[in-house]
Amino acid sequence: MSANTNKRISVKWIRDGAKSAYDKKDVCFICNSSEDLELHHTSSLTLLLEKWAKTNNIDISTDDAVLAIRARFIEEHTSELYDEVFTLCLKHHQKLHGIFGKAPPLHTAQKQVNWVTKQKAKALGLVPESKGSFSKFY
To answer: Cα–Cα distance between 98 and 114 in angstroms, integer?
Structure first.
């Protein structure tokens, strides 16, 4: 099969293999809107796949190559794929990417969690008790 010319093609195969197990919620984690919902991974799947392939010296330049490693990648990254995610409305998803970039660097995952948590607290009208802690989340 020919080489991929679009970097998103590789990650598309990963998403296609993983999406049946995604737990997309019915409302935005931050504002509880049920409109225009999207799933946000705190670890960019594109960057995660590229790093993993480089670390393991795995070729992901063709569709066949990605399909051959898809199950292994998903198994080794279940936390990033299924646990470290938020359902966000389009407004909050775009706002997050406006702050952290189109493909947020992997080292910003915890900062994204902190930002999402802080935005939820603001939406709920909660005031921080001290830096990093809130009186109530749900």
So the answer is: 15
Residue in 86, 118, 121 with CA at minimum distance from that of residue 104: 86
Query: If you average pLDDT over residues 13-24, what whole number do you get?
Result: 88
State the pLDDT confidence band at 90, using cuts at 50, 70 and 90: very high
Across 92-101, average pLDDT: 96
The DSSP bridge partners found for residue 86 are 40
For residue 25, give the 3-state DSSP assignment. Answer: coil
* CA atoms of 4 and 121, how far apart (whole Å): 42
End-to-end C-alpha distance for the chain, whole angstroms: 49
Every domain of the chain and the residues it spans: 7-134
Q: What is the pTM of this model?
A: 0.80
